[in-house]
Amino acid sequence: MSGNLSQDLSQLPQEQGRQAANPLPLVEEILPCPNLEQLFLEFSDDEDLLVLDSARQTSTLGRFSYLMSTPLKRFQIQQAQFRVDPFQEIRQIHAKHSVDSVPGLPPFQGGFAGLLSYELGQSWEQFDRAPFDEFQLPDLAVGFYDWVIAWDHSQHRAWLIVQGFDQRLETQSADIAASRLNQIKARIDAAAFNRQDRLTVLSQNPFTQADQLPLDQLSPVFPLEGNEKILSNFSKPQFLKQVERIIDYIYAGDIFQANFSQRLLTPSTQHPAELYLNLRSKNAAPFAGYFGWDDWAVVSASPERFLNVSNNEVETRPIKGTRRRKYVPEADLLTRDELRESEKDQAENVMIVDLLRNDLSRVCQAGSIRVPHLCEVETYETVQHLVSEVRGQLKPENTVWDLLAASFPGGSITGAPKVRSMEIIAELEPTVRGPYCGSLFYAGLNGEFDSNILIRTFTIKNGWVQFPVGGGIIAQSHPRLEYEETLHKAAGMISALQT
User: Fold this and answer.
1) Could you tell me how many helices (H) and strands (E) the chain has, helices first?
2) One biological process GO term for this chain (predicted)?
């Protein structure tokens, strides 16, 4: 790759300049704009690599992508404890090092980023964990990332941004920033690997050679109907029975809706980086991501934003309602109309909108919460979704960490009421969810925040790949159709597994 990078901010638009008294962060535009996949392969065996990837761009979503690795500090919580703030140390550092944005650049310019697993919700709500946890992933894995490569896809431009913090996160230094920037520049200049050659090198990484999990240590597993290589923690009759139990809970008045999933599982046959590139090409999504941490990785093609904060404006975009795409255009349009007009799917979506309005009201200004878009259809590679949008204005005294505490995990993947739904999920799903239905996120030192809901997501560890799929169950749900919907959602992921 040609590595013609600008030597200072002079080549950026004029409004991107900063006062000489505050020269940090250092910013250099990467010219020509690099291919994300190529840089992903260059950095793919780095420690704690995180890619937040708008693999599918639209006019309103998927504008920015980010790549970062080797954080200066790691934060990890193996198992959340009720009423123990998981963000305590992060809050303190974040408050100490608030910085202004460099105007004109993508919103994340360095700071905190990583994984919040579904069970982190036990920090704020008391519910049991599912009995099986073969993968033993942490509930929180977050890094402080001092440098980031940031893409603006609408402008077809990319920048290397370096904050210049020391290892103890106490001070910023222009000398540290310059040294770190030059190191990353050199790697970008050298990123000319042939894709297949690079994947061959990665296949020799011990990451892919972990011991297989013995089947006798797993929760009960059954071959997936029509695909003997993929196992599920439910047989089809068992899944239908559990959906019927949820419907009974609904008629008993316990809940209005619960999100229920089956965990699919198969032996790993490729490096997580290769799996990510396959998934990216076959099932592109606006909130995709890759996160490699220690001996495990998360690979996601999520279509769903969880929370976004910009200038204290909060946005969440719940997905409820799914139809499988049709190969014939006319039939595909009919499917779209059917989804839009479905009373069952609209009811499911509106319930979660009400739940999220309630969650946001705990930290947003009174009267600021609104629903600009309700039950609109969005089309993806293999499915169509019913999507809404809820917005509010964060109270001045509240932070993004307060927002997470008020709303995590996302209501679209729990149910309503949230706590009782999570109790029923833990009762009926035999395995912990882990990253699934959790979130990949960034929280910039400039106050910008964005996050996804980890659906359409693989977790890779110990020679196995797991990828749960689920959906919302309401009183009108038909168990067989709910089972088939999970398989529709898995279709794009299964195709990415086929090498």
Assistant:
1) 11, 24
2) folic acid-containing compound biosynthetic process
